[in-house]
Design goal:
By secondary structure, this protein is of the alpha/beta class. Helix content is 27%, strand content 16%. It has nine helices and twelve strands. It has an eight-stranded mixed beta sheet with strand order 1-2-6-3-5-4-7-8, with helices on both faces. A four-stranded parallel beta sheet has the order 9-12-10-11. The structure holds threonylcarbamoyladenylate and magnesium ion. Threonylcarbamoyladenylate binds next to strand 4, strand 5 and strand 8.
């Protein structure tokens, strides 16, 4: 069992550790040390053009990372959502290494809500750059076991049990006239709109960011969304992932994101179900579609990315 102190020592020494956040496990290094950050990219096999989120323990932790003072909009959003699953993208300072932002002029920052993540940040005494602790393009980890399975070479995994939120943070770019949604996540646009207006600007279209690509979160086995793909005849080799409690006949196994259409519960169970599919004897998964409102938007975003390769009805990809 690795202690927070040991993990902090590794971070201070330029190493990489996996640690729990309330969303998913992160793979962290000192954000101000470009060589340490390069190790994250190598371990994940992540392309250099995909920027990392920098984790801080409080609003003032942003100051060394951004250009100028903290904007009023960031203060308002942090007061409502931090510590928590909201990443804000702001103009970066010169001290923030280019490797962290993949050469972009802006840096994504968030304060995680998990007590171990906050304790690690305090003990390390530096901001921690961390993507999700999975191999690039694969399913995000929500337990320490998921991390060890994908990154067996990693020496230090802080185990904080299963992540409560289970889906990644919402990523917003901050502009003078409001926020711009770059990635849907646990904090919904409806909740953001209670604090700030949506910006008329649209930089998302220009972003070179694989996190926003259509094919991502790919399990090693096919995933099909009911109603969006042609269903297979060999149901006895498949898992059915239920959201409403419905359990159709004929599947080898039925799993439940929720038994009564609870979106928060579904988010917490989502990546675990995809990891179990990879480890199971079953050949594929059919998922009951969720309503696309509130948190359902982020969950369906992840499911469509997981299913993308298999929606094309192309037998080559099956
Ligand atoms: O919940 C989370 O956000 C988790 C935990 C570990 O904090 N982290 C996470 O990181 O999901 P990652 O690297 O898997 O996804 C980060 C995404 C990038 O793919 C990119 O879309 C966006 O955040 N991002 C980060 N920095 C950015 C920047 N400077 N400009 C635009 N997008 C950025
Ligand atoms: Mg990720």
């Amino acid at each position: 069992m690795v202690s927070v102190e040991k993990a902090a020592e590794i971070i201070r020494g330029g190493g990489v550790v996996a640690f729990p956040t309330e969303t998913v496990y992160g793979l962290g290094a000192n954000a101000l040390d470009p060589v340490a950050v390069a190790r994250i990219f190598a371990l994940k096999a992540r392309p250099a053009f995909d920027p990392l989120i920098v984790h801080v323990s409080s609003l003032s932790g942003m100051l060394p990372l951004i250009k100028g003072p903290v904007p009023a909009l960031a203060i308002a959003l942090a007061e409502r959502f931090w510590p928590g699953p909201l990443t804000m993208v702001l103009d970066k300072s010169d001290a923030t290494p280019d490797i962290v932002t993949a050469g972009l002029k802006r840096v994504g920052i968030r304060a995680p809500r998990h007590p171990l993540a906050l304790a690690l940040l305090e003990a390390a005494g530096c901001p921690i750059a961390a993507p999700s602790a999975n191999k690039f393009g694969r399913v995000s980890p929500t337990t320490a076991q998921h991390v060890r399975r994908q990154l067996p070479e990693l020496e230090c995994v802080l185990d904080g049990g299963p992540c409560q939120v289970g889906i990644e943070s919402t990523v917003v770019a901050l502009h003078d006239d409001g926020f711009e949604l770059l990635r849907p996540g646990f904090v919904t646009p409806e909740q953001l709109l209670e604090v700030a207006p949506q910006s008329g600007r649209n930089t998302a279209a220009d972003l070179v960011s694989p996190g926003l690509l259509l094919s991502h979160y790919s399990p090693e086995k096919p995933v099909y969304i009911e109603g969006e793909a042609q269903l297979r005849a060999d149901t006895d080799r498949g898992v059915y992932l239920s959201f409403s409690g419905k359990a159709p006949e004929g599947y080898a196994r039925v799993e439940y994101l929720s038994r009564d259409s609870d979106l928060t519960e579904a988010a917490a169970n989502l990546f675990g179900a995809l990891h179990r599919l990879e480890e199971s004897a079953e050949a594929f998964m059919v998922v009951e579609a969720l309503p696309e409102r509130g948190l359902g938007v982020a969950i369906m975003d992840r499911l469509r990315k997981a299913a993308y390769r298999y929606q094309q009805n192309d037998p080559q990809t099956h």
